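B., you asked whether I could sanity-check this one before it goes into the benchmark set. Here's the sequence:
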Amino acid sequence: MAGDNNMEKGLLLANKEETARTTLLLVFSTFIIVCASFTFGVSVGYTADTMSSIMTDLDLSLAQFSLFGSLMTFGGMIGAIFSAKAASALGNKMTLWLADLFCITGWLAIALAKDIVLLDLGRFFVGIGVGLISYVVPVYVAEITPKHIRGAFTFSNQLLQNCGVAIAYYFGNFLSWRSLALIGIIPCGIQVIGLFFIPESPRWLAKKGRDEEVEVVLQKLRGKGHDIMLEARAIKISVEVSKQNSNTSIRSLFRKRYAHQLTIGIGLMLLQQLCGMSGIGSYGSTLFELGGFPARIGMTVLSLIVVPKSLLGLILVDRWGRRPLLMASAFGLCLSCITLAVAFGVKDVPEIQNITPVFTFIGILSFTMMFAFGMGALPWVIMSEIFPMDIKVLAGSLVTIANWFTGWIANYCFNFMLVWSPAGNILIAQQFPGDRKTSPAEEFSPLAEKFNRRLLLGIGSSSVLAIEFIYPSTWVGDQTLLYRAAEKSERETSLDLPPARNLRRKNVNEPVVAFGPPGSTGELNVSVIVSPVSPTFS
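And here's what the prediction gave me:
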């Protein structure tokens, strides 16, 4: 009951909290924190334009480069496993410094690499840093910002990631792969210096019992004239509640009561990676060359739409709701896969082979857009909504690891599936060092007509079907549409008996929001009622 009382106190405090000003220190702190997200984006888009030049300069085989490209996601999985523990033990600032150390070391190793060993080691180190960044940055930003601007400031994380991808796509057309690696160091250097001038998260300070520092930090972030006592008390109460839920074991995740949420969370993450975006995003230049479309033009166009496409998803998510947006995204991915399959399928048909470059461009462009506004960001949003508080941390860690692991498999296997011959399961012959006289795209071309169309069609259609089955329309996690329907129903009819003259009663206190696990009969639900409180109320 102590936890329930604390929760009620937290809700009352949250309702009475004043709107804080957006101070210069808050903006500066957010900028320094999300600098790491830019490095994340550069690492994601780094291999898109550099595949041919790296393979040529270092005499790498297809298998060696595929391993190099996938080591970032494998390292990210390792970093994600320890990210929450590191942030809890060391603090967000120290964890970001540690991530910067891994990233800077990794990018320098890539830029100076003379053989495959140093190249792979550098990519792996960058992956570990990115894994730490993927957890710490959104948490750090959310913990220092007031709730009325928290969503917009947290979105800056995604925005800077997309800016990093765009920079990697665009400058990859002009810079060497060694110079492009040095670009990834710049935001890390800015962050290393900037972290000295920004405060630690108030929530982490409260966890460590440093209550005086909590109030000092909040005062700096909110401005001198703002009363921070209520917010400081709310943070301390929430920390106490979280400590009471910290004894949950990993075994409790696999109880029957959590099976549905866990299936949805892991299932959406698997679909996000298996849809093929990691491969198309990492090897887009090669796909353009295979389809006969100028790779430089294609990658430049992609670099221009990376940021706007993320804004599109932010606008549509509250208008359409989670499930319709996911369904539309999956359907668009399926059509994009069909377009790519047709492009490569008719490449050797003399009468219509001229449509291959156009269909390749349309397929890749539409695939990128469809992924961005639904399947790209929504699985993470849904994951944050469906798990109860007592398992949210453990379940989130498990789902994140599943995402990184599946991304590593998809990234590594993409090149092999691209040139796979279903008739004989033939892969490209490995060339000996010194014999390489053609680009990877020229090596792929003899087998391009055997592009695995079934794989593309299967991935797209299975995404639509899987979302339909594991994400049913009755699931309460789709809160946007649920609340909208509840408000409409409440306006049309009331659960109370109609009063005389068939007029609605005034001053009726009704729940403004209700939370509860899917499938329950209501005994576990929590309703929030907003009501005026008399001055004499204790």
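One thing to flag: The beta strands are 511-515, 526-529. Otherwise nothing jumped out at me.
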